[in-house]
Amino acid sequence: MFLSSWRKLVQQVRRNAGASRRGQRKPLDRKSCWLFVELLEERTMLTTYTWTGLGATTNWSNGANWSPNTGNPSSPGDIAIFSGSYAGPQTAVFDTPGAVVGEIDFATSSNITIANSNDAVLQMDNTGFAANSIISLTAGNTGTVTITAPVSGVNIPLAVTVAGGGLTVSGALTGVTPLTSGPGSIQGVSGSSITVNTGATFTLDDTSTTTLGSPNRLSDDMALTMNGGTFKYVGASNNSSTETIGAISINSGNSTITTTPTGTAGTLALTSSALTRSAGATVNFTGTGLGAANNQILFTAQPTLTGNILPY
Predict the structure, then answer these.
(1) What's the mean pLDDT in 155-178?
(2) What is the pLDDT of residue 39?
(3) Residue 219 to residue 272: CA distance in whole angstroms
(4) Are 144 and 165 in contact (CB under 8 A)?
(5) Distance (Å, rounded) from C-alpha 252 to C-alpha 226?
(6) Would you place residue 177 in the very low, low, confident or very high pLDDT band (cuts 50, 70, 90)?
(7) How close are the terminal C-alpha atoms of the chain, in Å?
């Protein structure tokens, strides 16, 4: 609030009240002449931006790519939306180190790629606006979203929901592992999660990496909830791929979890902390040579078995 403006308003009210008293035989109660003002705390308003792709560059920071075109989603709580149909596949290059987004929603028939430049990490933070930072592919989304940028949920859990279309996390990782916030990764604080619904697919794709060991595309405690969708893990070409995640919950529907080593020398191991299932839900674990030394799905805590067989 501008205090000087309030002072002027109060003074005007007092003058008007005084004039009224002079024109009346019976003076008014003095208390009625006061205007009580409460100073509120400063608040930041979130802004929603919809991608148009009309800018001269594909940079995230280019306001001409957004509607309204006066800025871009770059502050906690800001919402970025990709919706409708575009003239062709769209690429949004996150190019501003230190910029933060609260939520990204996809509801489009077009394929979208979220890339990066300038070593910028796409930080997600919805603190003060929601319980989670959000990446959402809605049920109306039919396109494939590919994330090759590093994504990092900070301060509060990151909730990734794939309800329609497909979400692929990939990127050309090179060098020595483990890597965090590397290209094509989704990292989050404790409590972060991925949910895959019926008809939707979430893919971890290591085929473009030459990294030895674990690309660590997901946080080691990232929970995975399956609601009838498909989770795919594709290994590095003729190299080793390992990924550790949190508990896998088979929550509803008929889900599929597929692991695929790539190349004759490729090996793959997906390790989860635990496996749980809700009544009526089923899962199909599948993959070329699944169970062999080069293709394994492992659980830190052994699931409940019936005759050494998962009863679902």
Answers:
(1) 80
(2) 57
(3) 11
(4) yes
(5) 7
(6) very low
(7) 61
